[in-house]
Amino acid sequence: MKKVIYAAVRIEYEKDDDKFNGTMSPADEELIATGLAITPNFTTVESGINLKSVHLQHATPYEVVDWQALEYFPDQVYVKQ
Predict the structure, then answer these.
(1) pLDDT of 26-46, one tens digit each?
(2) Of 13, 20, 71, 74, which is least surrounded by CB within 10 A?
(3) How far apart are CA 23 and CA 11, in angstroms?
């Protein structure tokens, strides 16, 4: 049976400019950070992008997301270094 979960996600990451000389576009950085956050493995660093934390809040479709609440909401998914 197919099921769907809707969620708002806030991803915090850092970029290591020393190793990769800042040649990556911001869109590519975000794509890598998003991939690290949603891929079910324990990798938190890729191509100089270091995943710091992932905040998750269940959401209702077509309902406005309270980003302020998400920012201070206790972590439900958290990556520790």
Answers:
(1) 899 999 999 988 886 777 888
(2) 74
(3) 21
